């Protein structure tokens, strides 16, 4: 079996899980996301979860691939200077103000671009400027920080921790990005969705953590063979047009599931252990383990504030 001792481990984790989540989840929510492909990944299964629970969810999006806080702010600034300037309307021909002004939003999320997430200096002053901008348009909206994740342990390079300096490995990228996100949350006095913590908890687990396949010939791959990538939360290796591609950054189905569990638990104050939906490509045993990780991650965040 792929997951040795899984049932016993999951049972023990479930018995020790903290179920002290709020009992009064909202029946509807209007959520606006400012981010990029990582926010798309991490919120991928929210529609499935809310459907399961009978919750009405409306999602607005200002997401552009690879975009940082600085870039989102630059677009908003351009639109404020000249509402007709195309540079201020990168979101399918609309500005951030136009999107935020579309009704009343209950929650607005912010995040840094993953490559810059471990560089604290990259957050300032853009996080505060975006926060203030959102509050002027949606004064009653709750702003929540989406803590993104570190790249897979076998990534060819990791995110920036300072100008001209990259993280040495997955652990350093996670530690530095976690510190930066928490500093941002403290400055703005907002809460965090700890997706990055959940990803690293899995990656560093002795049983479930991804381990690079040492037996695969990466220099001379033969189609359609791929390395063993069991328990990976990232896309990893795949074949495209008879060439082997590698993406150590974006989330695969398991990673999207874990991220969505954290988002759902944060937004609706409900235990991830209560979720029944599992994507087809995520093995049931691994999914059960990921639910316990999400539960424990939320618990740890709440007890270390």
Automatic annotation (TrEMBL):
From the UniProt annotation, give the residues forming the signal peptide: 1-22
Q: What is this protein called?
A: DUF4886 domain-containing protein
Keywords, A to Z, come to:
Signal
Task: Give residue ranges for domain DUF4886.
Answer: 31-159
Q: InterPro entries annotated for this entry?
A: DUF4886 (IPR032616), SGNH_hydro_sf (IPR036514)
Q: Is Signal tagged as a keyword?
A: yes
Per the UniProt entry, what species is this protein from, by scientific name?
A: Pedobacter nyackensis
- Extract one GO molecular function annotation from the record: hydrolase activity, acting on ester bonds
Asked if the Swiss-Prot or TrEMBL record annotates the protein with the keyword Hydrolase, the reply is: no
A Pfam family that this protein carries is DUF4886
